[in-house]
């Protein structure tokens, strides 16, 4: 069985990376399916980052399915997370709880698709209707742009729907 899994550990301290590498070797020896875990670990990486900001930048570029912010104050970095399927905060929030128990969904974007997609959630099954209402000032502000885009797409009736209203506003 070939696994496509990959794990990245991004840390700002070399000693932490080394300690995790050593602990990983110790725990692998206890796993019944160690050979599968080893396949995933062949593609996995330990990355030394110069700072927490650099670590977050690497993570955002990678767009992980699961992101564990195992820090003293993980919420302080949460606002900088732009791309992740599901985020786990702190030492007491293992991924397995999110997969099985905490109510979030395990159907998450993989292969970096978290750059563009969210995981499946209850909201995925809710019908939403968008509503717009412009004031005269709002139409004056965005109308010319809408008319230009409609003209570029050769949707002249769309263009007229905007320009006729703009003309009516000007005549008042």
| CATH fold assignment of the largest domain | Rossmann fold
Q: Extract low-pLDDT stretches.
A: none
Alpha-beta classification: mainly alpha
Number of strands: 4
Q: Estimate percent helicity.
A: 40-55%
Our measurement of the CA-to-CA distance between the termini, rounded to an integer number of angstroms, reads 73 Å
The CATH architecture designation of the largest domain is 3-Layer(aba) Sandwich
Rg over alpha carbons:
25 Å
Major β-sheet strand ordering: 1-2
Any idea what the shape is?
elongated
Tell me about the largest β-sheet. Answer: 2 strands, parallel
- Elements, N to C (H/E): EHHEHEHEHHH
Q: What's the level 1 CATH class of the largest domain?
A: Alpha Beta
- Strand % is 5-15%
Overall pLDDT confidence? 90
Number of domains: 2
Determine the CATH superfamily of the largest domain.
Nitrogenase molybdenum iron protein domain
Total helical elements: 7
How would you sum up this structure, described in words?
The protein is mainly alpha-helical and 172 residues long. The protein has 2 domains: 113 residues, Nitrogenase molybdenum iron protein domain (Rossmann fold, 3-Layer(aba) Sandwich); 35 residues, no CATH class. The protein has 7 helices and 4 strands, in the order E-H-H-E-H-E-H-E-H-H-H. A two-stranded parallel sheet has the order 1-2. The chain starts with 7 loop residues before the first strand and ends with a helix.
Quick summary:
This protein has helices spanning 14-28, 34-42, 52-62, 75-78, 95-100, 136-152, 156-170; strands at 8-11, 45-48, 66-69, 86-89. The protein is mainly alpha-helical and 172 residues long.
